[in-house]
Amino acid sequence: MKKKQHDLLKYLLSQSKPITSTEIANALSISTRSVKNYVSDINSLYNTKLILSSRNGYELNRQASSLLTLDNSESIPQTGEERAFFIIKELILYHTSHLDLFELCENLCISYSTVKAVISKMNKAFSTYGVEFLCENDCLYIKGEEKNKRKLISYVLSEESKNCFITLQQLKQCFPDLDIDQLHNIVVSSFKAHNFYLNDFATANLLLHIVIIIDRKLNGNPLDSSAFTFSIKTEQENALLQQLIAELDSLFGISLNSYERYEIYMLIKANANYSIVDSKAELKSLVGNEVISLTEYYIRQINTLYLIDLSDESFVTPFSLHLKNLLFRLRNGQNIANPLTKSIKLNSPVVFDMAIYITLDIMERYHFYVSEDETAFLAMHIGAEIERQTINRSKIPTVLLCPEYRNLGVDLLNKLLLNFGNQINIVSSVHSEEALQSLDISSFGLLFTTVPLYHTYDCDTIQISPFNLSQQYSVIQETIVNSQNRYKNHKLKTNFHAFFEKDLFVANTNMTSKNQILTYLCDLLQVKRYTDAGFEEKVYKRENASTTAFGHIAIPHSTDMDAIKTSIAVAVSKKGFQWDNNTVHLVFLLAINKADKKTFRELYESLISLFSNDSILQEARSCTTFEEFETLVYSNINQE
């Protein structure tokens, strides 16, 4: 939200009666036209009548305004990164066609020259995202394809949402009277005992909902079962549910009714890496058409307004259950306290803004007041899903093809994830090759199949038996490692020109010592304004702590990821550089910008893997031009 919009809301909040546009304009030193525009923008941003207008003037919708964070000290970005994120959100999230540079100076409380410096650094820092920030006629625009803008805003939101992920410590703060550690042990051991895979994010989501069910039960607010009955799909599911229920009843001295048991059963199905397609009908029977429709509507709106896709079943099912229970609490005048509310508002403003959008819609639909604490719980769901997506992007996207027979596919999926879940992300499980062909083949890099295939696919493929999986672990692990290497090398090829430049390449120089070549490469980066004046000192600080030489390769870097633009300065020497007790022939000086940390980690590993090959290293020693070096890299990647 812009500073003037913030000031307008704060001013209206201090008034007890409608205020005319002229009075507001005089108070804020703006035009009456700006007042009308700001009111329209604010109401559009929150998709509700946050500011009411009448013949008497403007006034705040008091019920909705209680959700807003209006402490100005929290709204003005202070660091270069915060200012960059502010600009990106204004241009992409809030769909602003352009920003007036002078108004931007006022909103950020910085000078014109500082704004221009921030924009210059942004163009370097976010160049790998395929966008450009252009200044024309004292206005700022963003240029780039929609898919690249979405990648950029996804990075910004994932950075801001980190404090929304639900941890054990946060649950302990929210529910200090419950033994969260013991509950966590019960959940994890129960799932493991029945051979179900449960990752950290699923564990957190499951714990959150079970804790809320137990807390409401202990405080005399059970869910109404009204002779509710349900059936369980498999014996394995039933055994897990019965053990979990028995241990919960024993630990907390409660007796969960049939409706509460069914809700926990649905949470198991949502979080134990099931293909939830078969469970949609069950979810609808549990939460009702109204909640399903609301959930789908909010997912569409969040995607439209904030460019974040929340449609994965790992979010849909827990969120639908939470939404149903939230409506139940509202109708009964109940509320759950959340001691993390202030922290989430402060540290994850955009995620909290998404939750506010949902809250305002609920208030307008049902005419119930929704507290900030309840809003923060919605934000925790959204933040956890964004974090889950961020982590999963570092794993190999994988598909499992296994004909469905006596729950064979589900068992195999869980066994694969129990043993290889930290390396692969199973994005889909299908039962036939026809179903496989309906998928976007380019969206996954590894395919497990239990049956012969009639077609070939542009991904690594391994045929496995659904039985005696433990005897196939070594073959599976080898396939995963090879697939990871190909994936990393693909990243090296596609990002080569984003990080390597002709002006940052030097071959067969007269320099022979580590200090000579390091200082020279640091100077190259600073001349191009990819690093600041303190970069060289940080490089030496890291080097003095422990050598960065690996055999005949050295990969020095700063102790911080604070480069203005991610880049690699390269030095090649046939004679070699004296590097402590080694002779190094190839030096890669890394300058890393935080925005590229994930891609750069993959690139770093690819460089070590590629140039650890003696024959490739010998060829690299003979390179005299950047073009020869580029050809060497490309040709050897293509051979992988």
TrEMBL record:
List the keywords (alphabetical).
Answer: Activator, Repeat, Sugar transport, Transcription, Transcription regulation, Transport
Q: Where in the numbering of this chain does the PRD domain appear?
A: 286-392
* A Pfam match: PTS_EIIA_2
Which PROSITE patterns would you find in this protein's record?
PRD_2, PTS_EIIA_TYPE_2
PTS EIIA type-2 domain mapped to chain residues: 498-636
**Source superkingdom:** Bacteria
Signal peptide coordinates: none
**What is the name of the protein in this document?**
PTS sugar transporter subunit IIA
Q: Does the keyword Methyltransferase apply?
A: no
**Transport: is it a keyword of this entry?**
yes
